[in-house]
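FORM 7B: Structural annotation worksheet

SECTION A. Query
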Amino acid sequence: MRTRTLFHAWVPKRQLARIVPHISRKRDIGATNPSSEASTHGRTEGSNNARKTLRPPRRFSRTACVTTALAARLSALPNFMPHFHLSLQSGSDSVLRRMRRPYDSAGAQRAIDRLRDAFPDLMLSADVISGFPGETEEEFAQTCAFIERNSFAHIHAFPFSPREGTPAAAMEGRLPPGEAKARNERLIALAERVRARVLHSRIGGTETVLLERTDGDCGSGHTAGFLECVVRGAGLRAGELIAVRVTGVENGILLAVFESL
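SECTION B. Predicted structure
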């Protein structure tokens, strides 16, 4: 049976042993229980090179919860990056029930709040489906409100597409193609506005960036929160983690300067 998880991340194998004892198997996240995968975009222990040493995903128990203890333990790992991806699908409880997801919006919200308490610079991304069979305008608005409220840095938005042989393909209430497309375009527009707000909030601050490409005094990479960043400065070398000052945003990408000591 396909496992339906809420959170996705990456963690090196040697760090997994440190995390597992801190995972509660109790249903303390709410009436339903989103499972958690934890992981890094970053370095393995003893390495100065981030993302080049990524391990395959290590899946926790499906009954594991994003507890306060787990969030605190993850934030204490020196190589753990503060970016989490949610297989959210919807912010509407009634839609989630029709999808047979093993969590509700309140449980997802509590998990996010616990992560945000542990990671001050938390960045979130999510998968969201619009136009699931029977989705009303009110249910769609609930999903939009969830995205707005939690300031997702990136939303993978896509309209419902029936897959032959699945329960959803036989459900009634499928939206007309034109309406489904329009609703997804609204979702994408919202996601872009929220992303722009997140990016502009970083201007003037300092970010840790993994340089992935360099060309003279220009380089590009991703921040610890997995935001794309273009950096200018002397002495840039691919594969290094550097502290940069964010100066602006252009076409959805952070602009920054590196000022070596």
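SECTION C. Observations
The chain has six helices and nine strands. Residues 10-64 have pLDDT under 50 and may be disordered.

SECTION D. Sign-off
Analyst initials: ____
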